[in-house]
Amino acid sequence: MTRKSTPQAAGTVAAYPRRAGASEHEAASQDALAHRLAALLGRRFAPGYRPSRHREEPPPYYVPDRSIVGTARAAVLGIRRAADLYGGVVPHAFVATKSISHGLIGPQARAPRAWAVALPDALRDVVLAGYTAFCAEDALAAGQRLLRRGPLRLKPADASAGRGQVVARDEAALRAAVAALSPWVMERLGVVLEEDLAEVETYSVGWARVGKMEIAYVGTQELTDDNEGNAVYGGSALRVARGGFDALRALPLDERERHAVDMACRYDAAVSAAYPELLASRRNYDVAFGLGAGGAARAGVLEQSWRAGGASIAELAAMQAFALSPGLKEVRAETRERYGADVTAPTAQRLVFHGVDTAVGPISKSGGILEAGDGGA
């Protein structure tokens, strides 16, 4: 007689690693994902996990709050393949950032030793006009060149949700923005200077695999005002297909959705070829459509994410729906983030966090299924 597997016997899921100083809403998001992944995998969620307390146990399925840097660090944790975590392992810290999307201002510009020199040329047709710099001198030179064609957007490589970005319309604004950057962070991770777009619509394109479950999706992002009045990430509405990108392309996508998927796939292939050590069970790409200088239509991949991100609650909701309904081919799912003390609390089923966060103030985060279909309209 064989013993029936239980969630505990099958292993654990851990919201780990987590950066020191993670705020309440960040920790809640990571824990919520780990809870949902544990249910999907038939495992037990291990709250407060620390490797030092579990040395005699098999490693858990990890849900890190950011990409893990270095295969050596991953091996210490017991991560040897993409199936061991929800997220990714990158060979170098800068590979996890938007810095890899653009080339340097010139052959003498500073860059990390592991910089893939040929990658920017491979990405040229799927990104906006821009440069990456690893020192203030190169950032100023890149910015001055971009200003000849119109306003630019300066993006710190370590920022997320649209925070920390500055639009410069002249050299004075450029110099002020560069002067405000941390030289240490710039040297290690870089800074992106990119053409600024008007009337922007940002799409999310992604793929994820958990166990035997595979999904791919495309959808749009929305902005919202944070508690200081800044426009930041406000959520995503996704069209999710059971299976990979071929399954997604088989859906009746509109022209812009199809274009976003094609650009993201080309970006993914180029980066994977440039950095073959990259492991990722979750791949997400932000793709922007808008108007450049002079009103010309522009489109390009803004950045990649190989970690749990803003759309991940929707990704997991879709996976859960597919697991419950084997014949289901397509669902629509969403995530939502709102700021302010007067936001109505989400239902318990959709709740991720609702309260006062020490870092950003009152914030409400939620997500779930919008509708399900059989792959038709």
Q: Can you describe what's shown?
A:
The structure is a single chain. The strands form 4 sheets. This protein has an 8-stranded antiparallel beta sheet with strand order 15-14-10-11-12-16-18-17. The chain contains 10 helices and 18 strands. The chain is α+β, with helices and mostly antiparallel strands. The protein has 3 domains: 7-91; 97-195, ATP-grasp fold, A domain (Dna Ligase, domain 1); 198-373, D-amino Acid Aminotransferase, Chain A, domain 1 (2-Layer Sandwich). It has helices spanning 7-10, 24-41, 71-77, 119-123, 136-147, 171-179, 183-189, 245-249, 255-274, 312-324, and strands at 12-14, 44-45, 61-62, 68-69, 88-90, 130-133, 152-156, 166-168, 191-195, 198-210, 213-225, 231-242, 279-280, 282-291, 297-305, 330-339, 351-357, 361-373. Residues 1-9 have low confidence and may be disordered. Helices cover 27% and strands 31% of the residues.
Secondary-structure topology with pairs:
Blueprint: H1 7-10, E1 12-14, H2 24-41, E2 44-45, E3 61-62, E4 68-69, H3 71-77, E5 88-90, H4 119-123, E6 130-133, H5 136-147, E7 152-156, E8 166-168, H6 171-179, H7 183-189, E9 191-195, E10 198-210, E11 213-225, E12 231-242, H8 245-249, H9 255-274, E13 279-280, E14 282-291, E15 297-305, H10 312-324, E16 330-339, E17 351-357, E18 361-373
Parallel strand pairs: 1-2, 1-3, 4-5
Antiparallel strand pairs: 5-13, 6-9, 7-8, 7-9, 10-11, 10-14, 11-12, 12-16, 14-15, 16-18, 17-18
Helix pairs in contact: 2-10, 5-6
